[in-house]
Write a structure and sequence with these properties.
By secondary structure, the chain is mainly α. The protein has six helices and no strands.
């Protein structure tokens, strides 16, 4: 019989958040590296390549990616806060009703897991809004600085793809956030509405929200 213990929800959530921050941070560090390569130029970048590819540099880069991932996540959250508040007000008229809904949801682990998964995707999307914009700018600067054939075409493609990704991550964040608030409102309404009221709603033909993710 295996002695391994199942992963606790708290540990799973902490692991997921670590991965989220790292995913965002690696993208940001890559953008910074491209900016540094563009600023340094071909000759300096060629000399620095062996050092940048060493094991100590890789370890430092991973640590920097995690630390910067936290900053990018907070910066993206701050920048998108006004939009997030407007989306939340559609389902929750006040902060207190939202807080109460979160407390109600916390009593059902299965729904908490679904909500955590949605928030995980949302955090990655909002971080990569910044990363996509940075990588687009950095890629264009690298193409300008280095002697590369078909530069104009490559810059146009880089810009188009980068803008499309930035818009895509924003739309994904917007959709996930709005859907999350809507589901939370429906689920907590179903959990807190008395059975008699639910029966009356069913008799009058009102659609009763379910608590399924």
């Amino acid at each position: 019989m295996s002695s391994a213990q199942p992963e606790t929800p708290a540990l799973a959530a902490a692991t997921a958040m670590f991965v989220e921050v790292l995913v965002v941070g690696i993208g940001f560090v890559t953008g910074l590296a491209l900016l540094a390569a563009a600023a340094a130029g071909p000759e300096t970048a060629a000399k620095a390549a062996p050092v940048a590819g060493s094991t100590p540099a890789a370890g430092a880069g991973l640590a920097a990616a995690y630390a910067l991932g936290i900053l990018v996540d907070r910066a993206a959250d701050k920048a998108l806060a006004p939009i997030r508040r407007r989306l939340r007000q559609v389902s929750f008229p006040s902060d207190s009703t939202y807080a109460q809904a979160r407390l109600t949801l916390a009593t059902l682990p299965s729904l908490v897991a679904l909500a955590d998964y949605a928030r995980s995707r949302m955090r990655i999307c909002r971080g990569w809004i910044i990363n996509s914009a940075l990588l687009t700018l950095a890629g264009d600067l690298v193409l300008l600085r280095y002697d590369i054939g078909h530069r104009a075409l490559l810059m146009a493609l880089t810009t188009a793809v980068g803008l499309a990704l930035t818009a895509g991550f924003y739309l994904a964040w917007h959709t996930i956030t709005a859907t999350g608030y809507t589901k939370l409102a429906l689920q907590t309404t179903a959990l807190t509405t008395p059975p008699a009221a639910l029966a009356q709603q069913n008799q009058t033909g009102t659609v009763t929200p379910t608590a399924s993710g």
